[in-house]
Amino acid sequence: MESMIITPNSKDPEVQILSTEFEKRGFKVQYFIPSTIKVGVGFQRSFYKQFESLKPKAALVRGFGAAVTQKIFFRLDILRAIEEYDVKLINSREALEIASDKFLTSVFLENYNIPTPKTIICEDPHKALEAFDELGGDCVLKPLYGSKGIGIIRLNDRSFAENVIYSLGQINQVFYLQEFVEHYNRDIRILVLRDKVIAGMYRVSDSWKTNIYAGAKAEPIEISNEMERLAINAAKITKTEIAGVDIIESENGLSVLEVNSIPGFTALQKVTDINIASEIIDYFLKSASN
Fold first, then answer.
1. How far is 61 from 7, CA to CA, in rounded Å?
2. Tens digits of per-residue pLDDT, 59-103?
3. 131-166: per-residue pLDDT in tens?
């Protein structure tokens, strides 16, 4: 039996852990690396042939690895092309499009009444500076696409905000500005598989930035019913079957920051006895078979 992992890097440690779980179940793993793919159209469905041997006819998506806008769209197109050949992707192309784009995620969260911080998105630097004022003169500037806290800047001084915003305007950046919410230097990551919470953790930092990649530490958490409900609903409305949901606590309660459609699990694994990779592969095989 063969299965497939779509990934920009087949040597990624988490990809290798997931591959081992596939192999334990008798599967040989193919790696689909978007940067190496040549798509032919009009050659008797030659592109489809690499998916013919998959049983079940599905692929586990662990990233598409694009930072340049044109490549982002091309690689999303590749995922949509794969789905056109009736190969199920987990997560789907639609889920990646929504969850990978902070703007779309924010819109979906608001539209389904899931609490999320006030956010303003625009292209015009002058309107971005207006947004800075509207958000109370203390906000977080984030890239539309990206993870691990890379490129995130807190703006809480107007002169500094002007310098940053007008400089980014020179290179035609889109401005995604989100109100800064005091969250006591920690947030919550919860891993969801469709309608089930698998595990969660606090991410605790010495500063406002709470990404593990930026130096935050994972700590155990007792997941409340409210956290569970919020995480499952956020994953559901963004159409994300395998989701890492980021939640912050403040004096106003819980709110969802982001939904990650390619959630890492190395840090989370350190604070739980649950075999996360095994849960992911079991879920993938069950969902793909259906």
1. 6
2. 999 988 766 667 888 889 999 999 999 999 999 999 999 998 999
3. 999 999 999 999 888 766 678 899 999 999 999 999
Confirm if 244 and 190 have CB atoms less than 8 A apart: yes
How far apart, in whole angstroms, are the C-alpha atoms of residue 124 and residue 168? 10
- Rg, Å, the chain Cα set: 20
| 140 phi and psi angles, rounded to 5 deg | -115, 125
User: What is the distance of C-alpha 216 from the center of its chain?
Assistant: 18
* DSSP secondary structure letters along 29-79: EEEE-GGG----SSSSSGGGGGGTTBSSSEEEE------SHHHHHHHHHHH
Provide the residue type at 285 as one letter: L
The tokens of 215 are what?
Answer: 């130096």
How many Å apart are CA 130 and CA 193, to the nearest integer? 39
The CATH number of 2-90 is: 3.40.50
CATH architecture for the domain at 119-179: 2-Layer Sandwich (3.30)
Task: Give the distance, in angstroms, between the CA of residue 237 and the centroid of all CA atoms in the same chain.
Answer: 14
β-sheet bridge partners, residue 197: 192
Query: Domain 99-114+183-283 class?
Result: alpha beta
Helix %, strand %, coil % of the chain (to 5): 40, 25, 40
pTM of the model: 0.92
Phi, psi of 150 (to 5 degrees): -70, 130
Q: Which of 6-15, 166-175, 207-216, 247-256 has the lowest mean pLDDT?
A: 207-216
Cα 40 from Cα 111, distance rounded (Å): 39
Residue 213 is classified by DSSP as G
